Amino acid sequence: MLLKVENLSLYYGPKRVLKDVSFSLEEGEILCIVGESGSGKSSILYSIARLLPKGARVEGSIRFKGMNLLNLSERELRRIRGKEISFVFQEPSLYLDPLFKIGSQIEEAYRAHMGKNGARQKAYEVLRKVGIQDVDRVYNSYPHQLSGGLKQRVCIAIASVCEPSLILADEPTTALDVTLQSSILSLFRRTKEEGRSVLLVTHDFGVVAEIADRVLVLKEGQVVEEGDVYSIFENPKHEYTKRLLLSL
Fold this sequence. Notes:
The chain is of the alpha/beta class. The protein has a domain of about 70 residues. The chain contains 11 helices and 10 strands. A hairpin with a 2-residue loop joins β9 and β10. It is globular and about 50 Å long. The protein starts with a strand and ends with a helix. This is Peptide/nickel transport system ATP-binding protein. Belongs to the ABC transporter superfamily.
């Protein structure tokens, strides 16, 4: 078992955003979390990565490779973030630093955990791996010089450069057209084929149908249904899941 979340509750002041959320994730598995906007999908990812705003309160347990992430110090978390658990954000333009070239940003992520040796070679390698053809140009570009699709590929490259066991992806295809969306999803499928896992948040059942092994349906901070992708599509149990599928 790679990840086991039990009775996860999240509070922003008196507001309870997540309500006793429980699920697990195996190695080499893609689990999609679906639900309408405001259901708490992204809050699950931010709770796992411990990237919540100041004042947020978390209850329950989040066990990654047997460690309860909620009990780790910030120093211990820094050793895990990027190396063992990485994050692909919804809007790459907000994540990439506009003042630094792409190559230096990938190398920085690598050096932080793996050391200086081979950082440039690894940056080139991971750019090719995410399907970028003109590697030299992208490596030497600033973020504003790249298209949205290329920037998202770069973010996946940064998330993958240390070969983490788990990638957390927060609606990574939302702003992309259908062609680019398909190519990004193929990168996650490749991650699975390499024996690593993806926890992906989306509101798009088309994305779910294309890459998910299992699905977690979230409504108002609660899990209302969980199952393999075939069961969810062919025989949904909960009325909320049925409505989401009918909205396609």
